[in-house]
Amino acid sequence: MQTSTTQTRQTRTTCCYCGVGCGMLVQTESTGEHIRIKSVQGDPDHPANMGQLCSKGSTLGLTAQPHLYEQSRAKFPELRRHKDSPRKRVSWDQACETVAQRFAEIIAEHGPDSVGLYVSGQLLTEDYYVFNKLAKGLIGTNNIDTNSRLCMSSAVAGYKQSFGADAPPCSYTDIEQAATIFITGSNTAYAHPILFRRIEAARQKNPALKLIVVDPRRTDTASMADLFLQILPGTDVALYHGMLHIMLWEGWIAQPYIDTHTEGFAALKTLIRDYTPKAVAEICGITEADLTEAARLFACSPATLSLYCQGLNQSSSGTDKNTALINLHLACAQLGKPGAGPFSLTGQPNAMGGREVGGLANLLSAHRDMKNPEHRQEVADLWGIPTVPALPGLTAIPMFEALAAGTLKAIWIVCTNPAQSLPDQTMVHAALAGAEFVVVQDAYAHTATTAYADVLLPATTWAEKEGTVTNSERRISRVRAALPAFAESRNDWEIALDVARRLETLMHAGSQSIWHSLFNFTDAQSVWEEHRATTRKRDLDITGLSYQILEQQGPQQWPYPQGASTGTTRLYTDGLFVTPSQRARFTAAPYRATSERTDARYPIGLTTGRLRDQWHGMSRTGTLARLQAHAPSPSVDISPLDARRLSLTDGELVYVTSRRGVQILPVRMTDSIRPSQAFIAMHWGAECVSGHAGKSVARGVNSLTIAAIDPVSEQPELKFAAVKITKANLPWYLYAFAWMPADQAVRLQIELRELFDQASFVTATIFGRDEMTSKNGQMETGLSLTMANTEAFSEALLRQIQLIFNAYTTGEQSSLSFRDSRHNSQRDLSITHTQTEKYISSVLLTGAGKDVAAEVWLRNYLENQKDITALGRRLLMPGHIPPEPMLARGRMICNCFNISEDTIRAHLALAPTLEKDLALQSLQTSLSCGTSCGSCLPEIKAMIASNVH
Ligand code: SF4
């Protein structure tokens, strides 16, 4: 469609969040020089999602609105000349030259292994390729690792150990062909929502399809299971060995397959003798009957598909967990056929692409092994250099430990936020603070990590980049630019290229011999074509594929060798594997407990995981008010039994203390968790929640987690830490909330971080509805700050907060104020006047905790923009009961239609005896909830189930 001034365009691209890799259609509208995203829809032709998008994907366009980018994006390169001076804007030339020179100096003085690159599973394959070549080909170090180390390196190690290659054998279509789906260590409903939609659809089509879920928490995924095994954390290996023990005893194994296609079964058979049902049920905390039923459903089903993720990988025995699960598939011949196989779900959008280019400290291009001299020579020959380094590189945790120890001098961090996401944040922050030279390349300017950058390099992000990604099912999709680069940002591979060319000139300076640049790339396609050449005759051979084929035929699964006309749906269909004997390998590894155990001092096992609507450190999703609505503030989840034992009420503040740190949080009681266990979402980092306890600085959930790693995969144990939970007893509270102009709220939330060290507990988040217009016609977003402290808040702090919360008022305003110096309490309200009404636009409450808590009804008035004309000065009376009951907005369940938990419960209460399917239908017809992206469906169904008796 075209008018004289406005043009619309549609761009086919890929979601930048999880490893499902959904295709999307982005509609942009341009007028003159201005271009904006009008809508984002699922691509009906993409085989991963067939038109669907989840709550995160469907709101990607909203996260890219100019007013949000203005507040959050890195706009231009910045440089600080001295550690204690602020960064200043510089040109790209100055920034890249500084990075190249400092790296060259440090390499010349301390050797190539004195520098490191820490990159990301969110980079495109082309970005990854250039960074990997820069480290291993030019600098001559294997010190390049990625945040994918935190999410799937155990899966890589498991596949390589069992099959001889890092190749997930399955496809998403196996979901529709499976007779049993075994989800283990994955909250698929939250982490891979569109796959969960496919599971729901498959079950609807085939009611005989069995769903088994294994998880220490009763997640939304678990609530849909036919059989739920709520195992104790970290006991997965014992569970799988116990299942195999039963399968052997019952004769449910596939002996001909074992004899023909595998090796090492005798040793495993000996090992699992000890894993009797009784012993395993005790270790795992489940019943023998459930264990037996799981073994039967797994082994006797015509096709069993395992889906697994961080619950297996983020563990100090992550590789053993992966191989023990694969053992079950091999023993029952549950792979290489439709609907069957061990299918690792990748957390990030391009963790697979990173593996393909060898962008990890222990890998080389195209799944080659860095330890293998022939592989090293092959890569050196492909790159036209004498050798690639043989010394193993530093993986994520050792890299930051080396930085802390001073043996690693300089680090270049790309598209990731280790000062939020790595375990043991005290160590990580000390490492970054003490490093000689820190380069941070990111699209977002205000992550916890950018604070440490000596050089900040602004990068492009989703909807601005060109290249490819590979999803969990080995499918390569094109990523295309719908928008121009924001401000002065550049593509990640181009930044790497610029620095690499300068660095190679510096490194060759003084050399008499003729040298040729390793970096003669002209565009993303030329990078990809060099990567393609490295895959020839490898298990992931894509020599038959091209950008043109991806353009014409859409996303394709590897391998796609020369001569092929289509990609490969399923691997190992012939029972031949990539090991020297072509047989798959059984691994006989005994069950090992978590690296840290609970004891009398730290009696509670803490686990971490995802929220439904947030992504990683929230640098993007945290800027969108509607994505905060499902889980508006941080909490630690504990069982009602533990809450009673500790005399805690819902929302009460507690110290969560591990051997590494402390974080104060409100408790949330939930029966989804077993007694003596706790859960904190992985997203809550120093950007949103902080405080101090004595000398210790709290930096969110990873203040508590442990840096212990798996000995093979070197993946850290983010899923388990021993903690204690104790009442915080903080007498003084501060609660401020306000409507802010939408183009200021995120910036002010960032500004509030300056105050985070002034209380024992602090959290600041945004709330509201995006593109919400207030009664005076302005687009507004809510900003909320909660603080709690051992001492009353100082006048100076209150003034600072008032300045931030009252700085942005529009239209006619009045204010109400009440101070009680005897009780150190204060109440300030700003009132906005329209022609006919008055409503509350900001509130600041301080005082004793229980008094402040009693005033939350003011938040309901503010959020609902309720007319307060009739309340008059009663608004200032402490302990005043609002004159009319008002339904709290509560937690939002359906984000698409803005339907809260309370509204759904109220609707269900109207017809409590309605049968489940009819209750869902009634909700969908009356409120529309669950009829768009579907991310809320598991929770709505669980609410219906708890309502119907
Ligand atoms: Fe994106 Fe959601 Fe699809 Fe994952 S499931 S790729 S987050 S739309």
Essential attributes:
32 helices, binds iron/sulfur cluster, alpha/beta, 38 strands, globular
Write the layout of secondary structure elements.
Elements lengths: L5 E9 L8 E9 L2 E9 L17 H4 L2 H7 L5 E2 L8 E2 L2 H19 L4 E5 L5 H15 L4 E3 L6 H11 L9 H5 L2 E5 L3 H4 L1 H13 L4 E5 L12 E3 L6 H15 L4 H7 E2 L1 H8 L4 H8 L3 H13 L3 E5 L1 H4 L4 H14 L9 E4 L6 H6 L6 E2 L3 E2 L3 H11 L12 H10 L4 E5 L3 H4 L3 H10 L2 E6 L12 E4 L8 E4 L4 E5 L12 H17 L15 H11 L12 H7 L2 E2 L26 E2 L18 E6 L15 H4 L7 E3 L1 H6 L7 E6 L3 E8 L7 E5 L7 E5 L2 E3 L22 E7 L4 E10 L3 H8 L8 E7 L12 E10 L5 H12 L5 E9 L4 E9 L4 E11 H5 L3 H7 L28 E3 L4 E2 H10 L5 H12 L9 H11 L2
Parallel strand pairs: 6-7, 6-16, 8-9, 8-12, 9-10, 11-22, 12-13, 16-17, 17-18, 23-27, 24-26
Antiparallel strand pairs: 1-2, 2-3, 4-5, 4-18, 14-15, 19-20, 20-21, 23-30, 24-27, 25-26, 25-30, 28-29, 28-32, 31-33, 31-36, 32-33, 34-35, 35-36, 37-38
The chain binds iron/sulfur cluster.
The site of iron/sulfur cluster (SF4) has 14 residues, from helix 8.
